[in-house]
């Protein structure tokens, strides 16, 4: 009996569990001690088996690593378990409970061919979607960013992430980014340093730029009138990468700004706040 009790106490001493919530369309950034870390696994209600996760270096603490874990807006997680396994047998678990969040509904009127595009452009739309998904599947195993993220321009937000988009009385999509007020020709800044992975005109997004910041973090800038960067170009945080416009599916000139992180489109302003809070941390 004493032996069994000792084994049980020993097991409990080396297993730590933390409960957290995760809202659809948002990311959580989990921190783990780096010393002795073997691997990090995850399993949600959407997975058939556990997955090995690729983690990243902590932006302000050399003794830690981080994992960005996100919940899809369209296929949200109900529950998930993240486990960090250590060489000494220690296990650190995060239990995540999913929530829908409180997102608004927005009714818009746009050209009919933008809601139900003509057949002749369907191939183009599919090609552009595959191109983007290929970019987002790329894991650059290093930090291309430089410290905190910044806003791409200093302007009022006109539409928040997650709003259900009803085009011409038809529920077509949800708003996958944050819209900033910007007249045509307003300079748009890189939210952080990185490498340009896409710079072209697209059917829905119009003039588009996508920047890779490393560790599968991407920023997106849509509806541009002029693009000032090229694919493969390295940019620094604050560089002018484009001018705002009214191209693509829009009701007027503005900048659509997005963040793709943890394998999903996430609320960019929420992600930036969470990430920047970690950059602010001081090693004690």
Automatic annotation (TrEMBL):
Q: Name one GO molecular function term.
A: metalloendopeptidase activity
Which species is this record about? Campylobacter avium LMG 24591
Name the keywords, alphabetized. Answer: Signal
Tell me what this protein is called. Zinc metallopeptidase, M23 family
Pfam families associated with the record: Peptidase_M23
Which positions fall inside the M23ase beta-sheet core domain? 174-268
| Segment forming the signal sequence | 1-19
User: Where is the organism placed in the taxonomic lineage, from the top?
Assistant: Bacteria, Pseudomonadati, Campylobacterota, Epsilonproteobacteria, Campylobacterales
